[in-house]
Design a protein that fits this description.
By secondary structure, the chain is an alpha/beta fold. It is 33% helix and 24% strand. The longest helix has 18 residues. The structure holds zinc ion.
Amino acid sequence: MNNADLVIRNARVVRHDGEFHGGVAVKDGKIIMTGADSALPKAHREIDAGGRVLMPGVIDPHCHLGVKFPYAEDMRTELAAAASGGITTALLYIRNLKPSYIPFYEERKAVGEENAPIDFGFHFGIQREEHIAEIPEIIAKTGVRSFKCYFGYEPDNPIGIVPATDGWVYAAMRILAKVPGALINVHCENTQIASWLKNEIKATGRQDLGAYTESRPAFCEVETIRRMIFLAERTGCSLHLVHTSVGMGPVLAAEAQARGVSVTVETCQHYLTRTCYDKDLDMRAKISPPLRDQEEQDGLWRGIMNGSVYSLGTDHVPFLPKKGEDLWTEFPGVVSFPWELSLMLHFGVHQRGLSLSRLVQLNSAHPAQRFGLWPRKGNIEVGFDADMVLVDLDEERTVRHTGKGTCIYEGWKLKGWPVLTTSRGAVVYENGAVDESAYGRGRCLSVPA
Ligand SMILES: [Zn+2]
């Protein structure tokens, strides 16, 4: 066989469906062989994994870039942070307030490809009625088949998110139900109840993080999840429940799946590792939906372990430094790219016995399958893009955040870290640094069919 570009050998290769000892050969950005070390060809670059774990790169299907900092800058800084965390594909939920998404898409794709060190793609937020009518054209001209509706934001929210109505969701679902692979993503929180409770709790003068959570309690999210599942069942549209923070989320989704509804649950690392009553957290740990209590967290872990949580996403959003002055006007959101894999290795694999294959399902195979990237991304198999992460399960390192945004894990010592990341066969992260030549190498995966 001809020489490969890259061979990684002597690895514990973990996929969503099992594992083997051996390695991988890569040529022209694709995996051309997997198997025993002795069967692998010579390569331009050969890496001895030293028995460490080699997994498909993490597909983080949930982040927000270019919200407060310039988009071009975020695509460099944040996706470099992502590469250092073992992420090889990032999908952005982005919003455009103009009537058409087409010019916006062209610009975001072009600027992204000038800057990103890893591959990326888009979900589009429905922000006005015209966007619903435009869905068929958006799909034809951009390849984006994943749309998001937002509840949980009051009409005058400082982020500028235009909240959905049930009418918008229903109308969008009716269109998307007819398109293979298309789906609606919903931020589930009952805004009307949350607004009422917010005014009550705000009047007490409370400024602790728990007050924010109690102003938008778990039942608000459960109510909207139920309503969205009802509409998905009614219309036949696929539904993805983003950043689910309540233990009932995976339970309700599993019940609906049993009736044949296509509904999947995403949760985020912060809901699995933090509660709103953690003593060291204050209003700067405000996130939407909020961090919850131990009971909800336990429910989410049950979903992780029993399969009813479908996938993980960070909801990574770099905002300006938080002020810490007023709970009710503080911006919600935290950053998580550099630690998202480590958090799951530490709290999932090491502490709870989560299998690495199940983690690969949550992090790679399932997001790829749900968002139209399969069979190109999300697996270590011949023909797939050579997006991989080499992990040292035993390395212990302390979280030190130096980038943009708010980190809620500062000083935590985590066990299990990514040590090397490849994007389409190029080593983009190793020895603690992102390769400078990787910027502008990332490609937009949202393209017309
Ligand atoms: Zn989000």
